[in-house]
Design a protein that fits this description.
- This protein is of the alpha/beta class.
- It has a four-stranded mixed sheet with strand order 1-4-2-3. The chain has a three-stranded parallel sheet with strand order 5-6-7, with helices on one face.
- The longest helix is centred in the middle third of the chain and has 15 residues.
- It is globular.
- The termini are far apart.
- The mean pLDDT is 88.
Length: 178
């Protein structure tokens, strides 16, 4: 019945994410990479019981506590039952972040000497877009440009499935959506 918990469930909808310009990040690796890349969460939800099962999750939890202490994020500790309701997927390690959308201007990427771009047109599956981001990172691509046609649906760049499939690469590899 909690309003905050209900709002989190609505973030599974692209319409809600786009209206609020906030996305969901789940998983130890993904949360750690978001924080390392200065994509600081406005809210963080932690289930201490699940976090205690992994040293890596405990380390990320410590970083979140430090951010909360400096008032850079709001930290909420929740029970296992509540966490299961708000989690978009399983195997999250007890960590869930709400991170603001970010924009990567193409002009900034083009200032790089000899930029190496990967252009993806009409990616329709989040898993494929995430895999492309991981591959681009491994291949030394400067940035990924995700293009879509107005007549064809394409993957929402900020869906939690892209974040998960990219294994957090989306936070440190510039992605331009156009």
């Amino acid at each position: 019945q909690n309003k905050r918990v209900k709002r989190l469930g609505r973030r599974n909808s692209r319409r809600t994410r786009d209206a609020e310009r906030l996305t969901v990040v789940e998983g130890v690796r993904e949360c750690e990479r978001a924080i390392e890349a200065s994509h600081l969460p406005v809210e963080a939800y932690v289930c201490a019981e699940l976090v205690a099962q992994s040293a890596e999750a405990e380390a990320v939890f410590a970083k979140l506590q430090a951010l909360a202490a400096t008032e850079k994020t709001q930290l909420f500790e929740v029970t296992t039952a509540v966490f299961e309701k708000i989690a978009y997927r399983g195997q999250t390690g007890g960590l869930l972040l709400i991170v603001p959308y970010w924009d990567e201007p193409l002009a900034q990427v083009l200032t790089t000497e000899r930029p190496f771009l990967a252009v993806v047109e009409n990616a329709q599956k989040p898993g494929n877009l995430g895999a492309i981001l991981r591959t681009a990172d491994g291949a030394g691509v400067t940035a990924v440009v995700s293009c879509r046609s107005p007549r064809h649906p394409s993957t929402d760049l900020f869906t939690p499935n892209v974040v998960r499939a990219s294994l957090g690469t989306i936070f440190h590899k510039p992605v331009i959506s156009t």
